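Quick note —
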Amino acid sequence: MTEKFPQLAVVVPCYNVQDVCADVINRLKPYGCAVIAVDDGSMDQTYSVLSNLGVIVIQHEVNRGKGHALRSGFHYMLEQGRWTHAATIDADGQHDPDEIPALMKLAADQQIDLLIGARQFDRSKMPIKRWIANKISSFLISKLIRTDIKDIQSGYRIYSRRFLESIFPEVSSAGFEIETELLILALRRKAVIREAPIRSIYSQRANQLSNWKAFHDSVRIAKTILRHYFQK
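Predicted structure written out below.
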């Protein structure tokens, strides 16, 4: 029998993923969690697909970025329900929904505020350019913010409600830098942070759907780190 997690809300940011988002979301449903899908101004039929899946759907009229999508999902989670945890999972097929039970049990049992699903960066399964970019960026960011987290930019995470409530007013990221900002805020508050290994799926289709822009998003991450550094 599949274990249920009614105390969990899963926020799924979606942008131009009409062909794959239904599979990701349908694989979450057996776990009894709430699914909050955020259509971030998609130009294809993503919103129409989401609307027929029987989950909570939030629509941005225009594309605002992953950070805004996650913030919209977190806001709904905090304002509209009593879920104790929020998970984030990408809609492009690179995250395995079946990791949810193990991650959720670990987060709840150890009272973790921020649990990061750490990808294993297997060179044999990742595009070489992406492998190099992930290794270098994670190493440099970890040095700058003085943490030994190995996969700082992973979007597969579980957050405790108490942590999100405490930091939500300070979160301002619009794009992929939101993962770095949330980690910085967790470190600043001495929150309980852990990593757990996850499987990442690097199919050609998933790579094509990814909206990560190496230079542009790396610059935004650097600016986020510097902003929080000078605030401190």
